[in-house]
Amino acid sequence: KVQDVTSDPTIDHELAFIKVRETDRNRMEIVKIAELYKARVVDLAADSLIVEGVGTEAEIEALVALLRGFGIKELVRTGTVVMTRGSGSIEEAVKR
Known about the structure:
Layout: E1 10-21, H1 27-36, E2 40-44, E3 48-55, H2 57-68, E4 72-77, E5 81-84, H3 90-95
Antiparallel strand pairs: 1-3, 1-4, 1-5, 2-3
């Protein structure tokens, strides 16, 4: 279901997986950047790692910008998902 929530208080977040080139030298720096953005490393390979970031569009943009300096091999993003704050639900709104 879709609901116009532009005038309602909302929570909005986006999910991103960012595959970054890494070496023994820069691995800890990448991990520290991920931690700064409350992201986490979800996969390690011989020459790359995948960072999972969740946050607002601005937070994801900032995380991607910092990781771009290491070389992004691959990037996928969900786009923003939104839910209204409070106890109401989309089901209740549709019934009105």
